[in-house]
Amino acid sequence: MARKGGSADSVYKVVELVGTSSKTWEDAAKNAVETAAGSLRDLRVAEIVKLDMTVENGKVGAYRARVLVSFKYGS
What average pLDDT does this structure show over 48-67? Predict the structure, then answer.
């Protein structure tokens, strides 16, 4: 999750989130990142690490995206 040209003196925290959507995996990942952006400052990178779905009565109930997001840590 490193970035070219990034400062070697920076520290980033990585958290794992699970976003959900009744429509698509893309919407699930987007929901996770946009919700996190409401409380985490200076988000840098989001990495989708797993996609799955819930099944209810033989049909897709929800799409789920497990996402690692990183943000600048410190003052």
Answer: 97
